[in-house]
Amino acid sequence: MTLLETKNLSKKYTGFTALNNVSLSVEQGSIYGLLGPNGAGKTTLIRILNQISLPDDGEVLFENEKLNQSHIYQIGYLPEERGLYKKQSVWEQILYFGQLKGLKLSEAKKRADKWLKKLELHDWRHKKIEDLSKGMQQKVQFIITILHKPKLLILDEPFTGFDPINADLIKNEIRELRNNGTTILYSTHRMESVEEICDHICLINKSKKILDGNVKEIKRQNSKNQFEVIYEGKIPGWVTVISNEPDYENHYKMLFEAPGMNRSEIIKKMANEVDIWSLREVVPSIHQIFVDKVKEAADA
Predict the structure, then answer these.
(1) What is the pLDDT of residues 10-51, one digit of tens each?
(2) Disulfide engineering: 167 pairs with which of 115, 162, 193, 284, CB 3.0-4.6 Å?
């Protein structure tokens, strides 16, 4: 089931096109990566989804209804630029924003207590925001964003300011939210975590969508049928060698192409000619696909 759909969204500012005919479809219960360089149009799209601004053309559908103010309570938004009241305590702040999103005070307290314990902030609940580290403040902002159990969670660079341990903690919570049915739109220009958590991605560059689809399928489609083998013996004459260098002792590491052949066929044929120690298909990373597609778009 599609939870969120945009149809031919366009947005222009004076002398500048921020979005140009962008359509995307986000399935319920998925993590959808919205990727692109700085200035690509991601923030403009997020502002439209949060009804902060309106598109010049196109429309947004939320559960097959045209997006309207009634949907605001079903959306959680974690902006890249965080907005917390520095002089207010953690506890007061979470309850305040929870009630703004429609929670009764008693329910807000119950949920706040649970999340503070879960994210190891319970002992800090009566501290002012200004007394917390940046990472702790990020956790508070995360709790505020998810407290009302939104159907759609929009995360804009959610790992900024986290050390590796806390970044992994938040990644796990994001996965758990997805597994429990929350739909997540994850906006970033950093590729490190995309392959770890995203089911689908959309790449926007210079206001236009240039790629979208399932992560595994995109990687398969952009595979160049290249393989890396560590072997002992002579180079088989039927492979197209890209590089070949000593690895250790009498072993070599070779990068090669074998068009039209899969891994099983390569192993079967190569095993008759060389001693194979390991063989793997070299699949491009989302980072490399991202760089290649942006370059292709620039050259077009």
Answers:
(1) 999 988 899 999 999 999 999 999 998 888 899 999 999 999
(2) 162
